[in-house]
Amino acid sequence: MPTATASSDTDMKAVTRELRVDIIRMIEAAGSGHPGGSLSVIDLLSVLYLKTLRHRPAEPLWPDRDRVVLSKGHACPALYAVMAKTGYFSRDLLSGLRKLGSPLQGHPDRLRLPGIEVSTGSLGQGLSIALGMALAAKLDKKDFKTWCILGDGEMQEGQVWEALLAAPKFKLDNLIAIVDYNNGQIDGSVKEVMDLEPLADKLRAFNWETIVIDGHDLAAIEGAYAQAARVSGRPVAIVAKTAKGKGVSFMEHPCEWHGKAPNKDEADRAAKELC
To answer: Whose CA is closest to 245, among 11, 80, 27?
Structure first.
């Protein structure tokens, strides 16, 4: 059963505001990091961990747990904030983001932090790894699901499309790919760098059950996850349309906040907006 700490949509909105503040504060303390993509993906991760995922934070290697692969590993501040909220580790550790010797590195490290399934950060590899996990579950007759969160920029990588081609061949209905479609990457807008459109049509053509949602609508996210869990015979892709820097007015959309840490004044301003 999923571990949940918020039961209503109102509760979840309060939780996601709280987690956005955590993201801002930990990146401010680190002096480096990726606020834009962390703020765009936090709603997707919050509903996954608090309302959907089958997991046991106190037993991170529980054999029947669902697997989560954060392919866009640079957005790990969002993952760390959610993991602390659900009890994988003390929230006090968040201030150690990117510090020497900290388990909360700038990209997820499975050897340092229990609850991390895969060390990620080299973009384009996560879906292939998730596919392997899903295929292993089929071979071992296990019923856990594997959830893979991708950035839209990394969808430009060829390896992603090889995995997209392979998953339907093996009828991996236990594999769910979630695309954080915030239309921004380090070099500018995704449309300008290498346009993905029409992404949903392409995914359907590759024989993926494809769901398109507003990636900040908490009820829509929960509904899409429930729908994905019911699909039989093929993998599921959720295209979540999001805004880079969501929730902080001066961070929303500009690509300059892809990998720029706020200073104290900017962090205070952001936290004030969110509280």
So the answer is: 27
Distance of alpha carbon 33 from alpha carbon 88, whole angstroms: 21
* Angle separating helix axes 9-30 and 218-230, nearest 10 degrees: 100
Q: Given a cut of 50, is residue 4 above it in pLDDT?
A: no
**217: Cβ–Cβ under 8 A, 6 or more apart, which residues?**
none
The number of distinct structural domains making up the chain is 1
CB 115 within 8 A of CB 83: yes
Residue 146 pairs in a beta bridge with 67, 175
Kindly tell me if the per-residue pLDDT of 1 is higher than 50.
Answer: no
Question: Do residues 151 and 70 touch, judged by C-beta distance below 8 A?
Answer: no
pLDDT for the residue 174? 98
Separation between Cα atoms, residue 8 and residue 121, nearest integer Å: 33
Length of the chain equals 275
CATH number of domain containing 247: 3.40.50.970
pTM check: above 0.85:
yes
Report the pLDDT value the prediction gives residue 254, as an integer from 0 to 100: 85
Q: What is the mean pLDDT of the chain?
A: 95
Beta strand 67-70 pairing with 146-151:
parallel
Question: What are 6's two structure tokens?
Answer: 């918020």
Cβ–Cβ under 8 Å, residues 8 and 262? no
Question: What is the extent of the structural domain holding 43?
Answer: 9-274
Helix (H) / strand (E) element for 27: namely helix 9-30
DSSP symbol at 176: E
In a domain, 2, yes or no: no
51 inside domain = yes
The dihedral of CA 195, 241, 116, 69: what is its sign?
negative
Write the pLDDT tens digit of every residue in 12-35: 999 999 999 999 999 999 999 999
